[in-house]
Amino acid sequence: MLGADCRFVSLKGTGKKSSLQERRIVPKFEIKNRKTGEVIFSGKAGSLKELVQAATLTGSDASVLSQILITLKIKKPSKVKFYGADLKGADLTEIDLTEAEFSGADLSGADLTGSCLKKAVLSRVDLSGAKLCRTSLGDVDLTEANLYRADLTESVIENADLTGANLGEANLSGLTLNKAVLTRADLSGARIVGAVLSKSQLSGNKLAGADLSFSKLVRTAFEKADLTKTNLERVDLSGAQLAGANLSKANLTAAILDRADLNGANLTGAVLSSAGLVESNLSKAVLKGAALDGAKLMRAHATAADFGSADLTDSDGSGANFSGSQLSRAKLIRAIMSGADFSSCQLYQAALVRTTLVEANMKGAQMEKVDCRQAAMERANLTGANLSAANLEEADLQKAVLTGAALTGANLTKAVLDDADMTGVKGSGANLTGASLKNVILDSADLSKTNLTEVNASGLKMTSGSMIGADLTKADFSWAVIDKSDLSGVKIAKTSMRGARLTDVKGIKFKKKA
């Protein structure tokens, strides 16, 4: 509680009686404890601000402040402790409050614009709605302080302790927050646009709905923080610790997350369009329905992650590790995934149209009904992959390894499989119309009832394989080597077998030339 009592006070002169003109009005102020009503500090000064400044002095020689000390009859300056003080709505702008102690005080609505609060103790202080613009808060203790809707625009907070502080809906735009501790702090709905929070500790914090766009959060710790629906557009989170954080429906458009740790993070429905995730850790992260179009995922570690129905159109995941991840119904249209590891991945009904998968590892991947039209899959490893009913029309699979792969009912129309290893392939009922199978290896392969119309299979090699009931109309098997295979019921019309060598083949015989 603040009180001001204006009265006339005579100032001592040189022994002569003071005239009326020498008299002046000096208000008397009292600072009381907001709960008990006990007077903490009182005195006469030109303003409450001067009184508070005098109370925090530790021996300043400044002329104005020295005069205040004389007026207040303080002989030995010593710091007053404002424990529980009622300074609600007080004007404390642009004054030095270094090392001041305000624990439990009420500074709600107070104006501290431009003031210095370095090493001040503001533990459990009510600063709700307070103005702290351009305030210096280095090494300050703000543990469990109430800063709800406080304005900290362009303030500098370094090495500060904000453990358990309430910063809900506070304005932290342009704030510099270096190496601050914000454990359990609540920043829900806070505005932190263009702020610098590098190396700060925000683990476990509530930031749901906060606006941190354009901020710098390099190597900031956000483990298990609640960042639901948070705006992180164009934020620099390089090297940030986000393991276990909840980023569901967060806006991370064009954010930089290079080398960030997102292990086990929840990014369901998050927007990561054009985001940088180079060498990031996305292991066990949940990205269901996330937008990753245009994202940079080069060399990212995303094992056992969930990308179900995620949009990775035009993304670049070259060298990334997605092994064991869920990518069912995900969109990877025109994505660049050269050298990426998709081994044991679930890619059911995924869209990989015109995707670059050169030298990708897709060993054991479940790719049933996947759409790989015009995909570039040269030298890809598809050993044991399930491509049943997959659409591989015009896909480039030159020198690919498909050993033991399932191609049952797959569409390989006009696909290029030159020099591919298709040993043990199960391709019954597949459509290979117009495909190129030059020099392909089909040992122990099952191509029964396949459509091989107009196939170029020159140089093909098959031992112990099956083409039972296959359609070889207008196919080219020149110089093919087929041994101990079953071609019973094949349809041959205008089929070229020039230079072919068929040994111990069932179901087909060629007349020897006289």
Structural notes for this entry:
This protein is largely without helices or strands and 514 residues long. Helices cover 3% and strands 7% of the residues. It is built from 2 helices and 8 strands. Strands 1-2-3 form a 3-stranded antiparallel sheet, with helices on one face. The chain has a 3-stranded parallel sheet with strand order 6-7-8, with no helix packed on it. The chain has a two-stranded parallel ribbon with strand order 4-5. Helix 1 crosses helix 2 (63-71). The longest helix is centred in the first third of the chain and has 9 residues, at 63-71. The chain is rod-shaped, with a radius of gyration of 38 Å. It starts with a strand and ends in an 11-residue tail after the last strand.
**Topology order in helix (H) and strand (E) letters:** EEEHHEEEEE
Radius of gyration: 38 Å
Q: Which parts are unreliable, with pLDDT below 50 for 5 consecutive residues or more?
A: 1-23, 58-65
Which bin fits the share of residues in helices?
Answer: under 10%
Multimeric status of the protein: single chain
Biggest sheet: strand arrangement: 1-2-3
Number of strands: 8
Mean pLDDT: 89
- How many alpha or pi helices? 2
- Based on helices, strands and strand pairing, what is the structural class? little secondary structure
Report the major sheet: 3 strands, antiparallel
Overall geometry: rod-shaped
The span between the termini is 122 Å
Task: Please state roughly what percent of the residues sit in beta strands, choosing from under 5%, 5-15%, 15-25%, 25-35%, 35-45% or over 45%.
Answer: 5-15%
